[in-house]
Amino acid sequence: MKRLTAVAAILLTAAACGDDLSTPTTPSATGPITLSATLSAANMVPPVTNGDANARGLATITLNVPRNASGAVTGAGTVDFAAQLASFPARTPATLAHIHTGVAGVAGTVLINTNLSAASPIVLDANGAGTLTITNIPISQADATAIAANPAGFYFDVHTTLNPNGAIRGQLATP
User: Would you say the pTM of this structure is higher than 0.85?
Assistant: First the structure.
């Protein structure tokens, strides 16, 4: 009888410990919101046809905002931008970069500015390539909620001295 009681106690303890070791099977809905944008001169409105016409890039945009268990944005936060740029003319200065409102084919207003400027551009290398990394740009709860709800309703673009109205553009998407 003592042996049966001891075995039962061990089994109950093992079962209880097993609950502590379980891992979630789905990703957390409360972490950062990561978006991407495939950037192209052909996506600009109107499409770029000058020296930046072959320019392209890939951007990753991370919204660092608080979210509840269902994934809804619950407050303001920051945005991080990381973009790989390529196929520009040598030593092109990237003078502006931001998120705009607007679906594909429509030019929209600036929503979130990265604070890149003509006064302190990112100058691409001799191959017309480079990395744009800008972090901790403030974002409101309302803007983060709107972007998270409909990424395709927003786009990211990069401007150059040759194309001050925008050189490459891509709609936001979830990866």
Answer: no
